[in-house]
Amino acid sequence: MATGRTHRPATRSRGIPEATVARLPLYLRALTALSERSVPTVSSEELAAAAGVNSAKLRKDFSYLGSYGTRGVGYDVEYLVYQISRELGLTQDWPVVIVGIGNLGAALANYGGFASRGFRVAALIDADAAMAGKPVAGIPVQHTDDLEKIIKDNGVSIGVIATPAGAAQQVCDRLVAAGVTSILNFAPTVLSVPDGVDVRKVDLSIELQILAFHEQRKAGEEAASDGAGPAAVTREESARSADQGPDGDVPAVMPA
Ligand SMILES: NC(=O)c1ccc[n+]([C@@H]2O[C@H](COP(=O)([O-])OP(=O)(O)OC[C@H]3O[C@@H](n4cnc5c(N)ncnc54)[C@H](O)[C@@H]3O)[C@@H](O)[C@H]2O)c1
């Protein structure tokens, strides 16, 4: 079984901090919406508000890209879309495989947002022989027996795992051995991968738990302000204590 670290250090080799990299997709989403409305330029304040990020942080992030905007005019929307897309590697097509085509895998396969962002679903893989050949989102499901060949034939470097937790490490090991170097893991388990392999995990139940934490704090604040209880915890303090940035700008996907 593969061992070793599960994510890269906090700063990438080109000097862009991981926290900045994690915010680039937020800027890109906001900029794409502006571009679709043919908005030519945007101020750092407007863009920060649209991306849900603090504007000083945005300016610092863009300084890593060498993008400083023009005083009184702001940032050129189209150029920034290009710059961020290039930085994220989205100016090329990325073939992706999804392993585990149950409820979640099928929903992901049907999600149109991958293709529009440069991620092509190259193959769907499942261990259930009864599913082999059946189309999901117009793509025939292939059996796990062929996993290695599918990865090689399609030049896949990004794999999405949507299997039950108990199967995820074994699937991960096979993907990595076949040449996959980036994994998006939806299974509720921690994956172990060798150096050079990036794992990101998505866990909506963790996001809900964080919201539940804030709900509980809000209820506590209200109770404290109604009566003679102890000083209420501020919203900002409660956000920090949930290991989230003060701007609430940590995306739902996180390093493994
Ligand atoms: N991250 C999230 O927010 C989130 C949300 C929903 C579900 N999940 C997780 O996603 C996973 C899938 O959930 P689901 O509801 O789609 O389950 P599901 O039971 O509907 O589908 C799982 C699929 O994986 C296949 N499978 C099992 N072992 C396999 C293997 N070794 N190789 C390839 N395929 C294999 C099964 O045949 C099945 O088709 C679970 O781990 C679940 O906990 C995560």
TrEMBL record:
Residues 26-65 bind DNA. InterPro entries: CoA-bd, NAD(P)-bd_dom_sf, Rex_actinobacterial-type, Rex_DNA-bd_C_dom, Tscrpt_rep_Rex, WH-like_DNA-bd_sf, WH_DNA-bd_sf. Residues 219-256 are annotated as: Disordered. One of its GO terms (cellular component) is cytoplasm. Keywords: Cytoplasm, DNA-binding, NAD, Repressor, Transcription, Transcription regulation. NAD(+) binds at residues 100-105. It is found in: Cytoplasm. One of its GO terms (molecular function) is DNA binding. GO terms for biological process: negative regulation of DNA-templated transcription; response to redox state. Homodimer. PANTHER family: REDOX-SENSING TRANSCRIPTIONAL REPRESSOR REX, REDOX-SENSING TRANSCRIPTIONAL REPRESSOR REX 1. Belongs to the transcriptional regulatory Rex family. Modulates transcription in response to changes in cellular NADH/NAD(+) redox state. This is Redox-sensing transcriptional repressor Rex. It comes from Streptomyces curacoi.
